[in-house]
Design brief:
It contains 12 helices and 13 strands. It has 357 residues and is an alpha/beta fold. The strands form 3 sheets. The protein has a 7-stranded mixed β-sheet, sandwiched between helices. The chain starts with 9 loop residues before the first helix and ends with a helix.
Length: 357
């Protein structure tokens, strides 16, 4: 058989893959399209021997994250970034062709892509004014829904979901579905974290990552926070060795008390950069609106986003185009960089504002 495509599952044949920042590519020296932390935190490998398989769940790393999250170790599961966790939850709780997941666009694209890859159908309930959850519509669409994904702060909009809305969702889904709150960016607004709810809501799962505030996107290390019964179910499905030795080595170092303090200080500086950057963006003629953000990026609506995107790209500034996302016409997402990078972007936008746009 010469046509390999005939052997591929039908849902994969029609799958539109998630366009990660690196997959999209581009050439530049100011990368503000992937919500990465703009400066590295350096570590040295302490464990050099790689001839043995790693622990499935490295004990010290799990203990340190549990301490950081104020939970017990048996409430933590480490994964290859939050992306593996998103898929692992579907594999554990959803029967393909029968069960559904639900999410609320505009939001993180991997909920949709993971569902399509596995063969799980999904329901979308678009957000309403200022990206609030449409609770009435969600309540009407719960039949056969096993998992609901809520990104908080939401990517790419940057807003925080109202706590009372979370309580409502948890109440109406009790005994019916799992609520997954994706807190990939929570360190930038740590007071909004929902860990305290795990005690009373056993069907709540929280996702975390070291990719953002901990400046370890290249490490690919995430965590699932949940009731111990859920953790044990997920352990039945997860791959045998999800966390490589170098990953657990560096992650364990990053979760030391000294490096957690360093992370918090870095976040404070980045939030200061964001405040300055947001103020300056509002002064640019080519900007129509800057949306409030509780994360390490800002969503900006421009008068002509394509021209801005292309012009800045020509100057080596790489942003993330959001035009194809629901309700985000003329919007670009800009990761917060160093103060020097932020100044460079503002300078380029002011120059562009002098032109007819």
């Amino acid at each position: 058989m010469n046509n390999i495509e005939k052997l591929v599952r039908k849902n994969v044949q029609t799958l539109v893959p998630y366009q990660s920042a690196r997959r999209l590519g581009g050439t530049g020296n100011t990368w503000l399209n992937a919500n990465e932390f703009p400066v590295p935190v350096l570590f040295n490998l302490l464990h050099q021997q790689m001839n043995r398989y790693p622990e499935c769940q490295p004990r010290l790393m799990i203990e340190r994250y549990a301490k950081y999250a104020h939970l017990d170790s048996n409430q933590i599961l480490a994964t290859r970034g939050a992306d593996e966790a998103i898929e692992l939850i579907m594999k554990t709780f959803c029967d393909p062709g029968k069960d559904l997941i639900l999410f609320c666009p505009p939001t993180y694209g991997m909920y949709k892509v993971s569902a399509e890859t596995i063969g799980i159908n999904y329901i979308t309930v678009p957000t309403v004014d200022n990206w609030k959850l449409n609770l009435t519509a969600i309540a009407k669409n719960l039949d056969n829904v096993k998992v609901i994904y809520i990104c908080n702060p939401n990517n790419p909009t940057g807003n925080i979901v109202d706590l009372q809305d979370i309580y409502y969702l948890l109440d109406i889904t009790y005994g019916r579905a799992i609520i997954v709150v994706d807190e990939a960016y929570i360190e930038f607004c740590i007071k909004a974290n929902l860990v305290k709810l795990l005690k009373n809501y056993k069907h709540l799962i929280i996702l975390r990552t070291l990719s953002k505030a901990f400046a370890l996107a290249g490490l690919r290390c995430g965590f699932i926070l949940a009731d111990n019964k859920i953790i044990n179910l997920l352990l039945k499905v997860i791959t045998p060795y999800p966390i490589a030795i170098p990953v657990s080595d560096i992650a364990t170092q990053a979760l030391s008390q000294k490096n957690i303090i360093l992370m918090h200080n870095n976040v404070k500086q980045l939030n200061k950069n964001k405040e300055w950057f947001t103020q300056q963006l509002r002064k640019c003629h080519c900007v129509e609106k800057v949306f409030l953000s509780e994360s390490n990026y800002v969503l900006v609506r421009f008068k002509n986003s394509s021209k801005v995107f292309e012009n800045l790209c020509d100057q080596g500034i790489i942003l993330r185009d959001q035009n194809n996302n629901l309700g985000l016409s003329q919007c670009l997402r800009i990761s917060i960089g160093t103060l020097k990078e932020c100044e460079y972007v503002i300078s380029a936008l002011k120059d562009l504002s002098q032109e007819s746009i």
